[in-house]
Amino acid sequence: MVAQLLFFLLAIVAIAAALGMLIARNPVNSALWLVLNLFCIAGLYLTLNAQFIGIIQILVYAGAIMVLFLFVIMLLNLAELPRREDIDWKRGAAFILGMGVLAQLVYIVAMSFDVLPHPPAAQEAVATGSAQVLARALFTEYALPFEVIGLLLLVATIGAVMLAKRRFV
Amino acid sequence: MLTDFVPLFLMMALALGLALSLLKLHQLLGPKRPNLIKTAAYESGMDPIGTARERYSVKFYLVAMIFIVFDVEVVFLYPWAVSFRDFLAADAGLGVMMVVSFFILVLGIGLLYDIKKGGLEFE
């Protein structure tokens, strides 16, 4: 009950933050909305008992990757977009309501054919999403994908150096 | 269960509430008599010239990118560190050590390349 309440709260705030990110005219405001969105998604991970992923979501995405986004915004010297006055709220509301009705229809049809995936149950012990459980799978069964991630990070390092150190003469 | 995270949520709510209330309180309590000089941007006593948003050098982007790569590396090393004793107890310590060593080696090559190319130098 509490978990469901928390899920809907976080989901609604996450969607609102994503919309805010799209609507904001100032690119830095956009980035801050995205931070709120990432925090809500971290909360959603917590409701699924995936606490390690949740904390990493905050540390890496909301911390490191957002810093990169802000650097890019400043690198590109993006100015604030002119404010649009002609937003048609009636049309927007009609769109949202229409999408809501469509979602309900799709949900009911999918329910009747029983093709919906069953949501992951969060009733298991908290240990399912802990770092230890992750480590057991990551370093034994998925050791090769783990090494491939290392190669991917190497490619990212070399690519960044190549891009930034190139001399345009 | 979710109730195990209650202290965490409580702490986050407390931190958020403290930050927001401090911001709001100083807005409400502090006296404000703005004038043209006071509201001007501070530029070491000179009249401000140009915009505050200067273009950054691409070097900052490079440093941020390298930071993210090694941040992600540490994220992958954390599960290994917390369950190192479990692996030892399960007699898998050496194999996992080799897996992680190779991972660190691959990223070490990236760091070496970066240093050789002078990516971490600021002139």
Could you describe the 3D structure shown?
The complex is a heterodimer of chains A (169) and B (123). Chain A has 169 residues and is mostly helical. In chain A, 76% of the residues lie in helices and 0% in strands. With 123 residues, chain B is mostly helical. Chain B is 67% helix and 0% strand. In chain B, helix 3 packs antiparallel against helix 5. Chains A and B meet through helix 1, helix 3, helix 5 and helix 6 of A and helix 3 and helix 5 of B.
Question: What's the helix and strand layout?
Answer:
The complex is a heterodimer of chains A (169) and B (123).
Chain A: H1 2-23, H2 27-47, H3 51-76, H4 89-113, H5 131-141, H6 143-165
Helix pairs in contact in A: 1-2, 2-3, 5-6
Chain B: H1 6-29, H2 36-39, H3 58-82, H4 84-89, H5 93-116
The largest sheet of chain A, given as strand count, sense and whether it forms a barrel, is: none
Instruction: Calculate the mean pLDDT score of chain B and round it.
Output: 84
**How many whole angstroms does the radius of gyration of chain A measure?**
21 Å
So what's the oligomer here? heterodimer
Distance between the termini of chain A: 64 Å
The name of the CATH topology of the domain at 1-87 in chain A is Four Helix Bundle (Hemerythrin (Met), subunit A)
Q: Label the structural class of chain B.
A: mainly alpha
User: Are there runs of chain A of 5+ residues with pLDDT below 50, and where?
Assistant: none
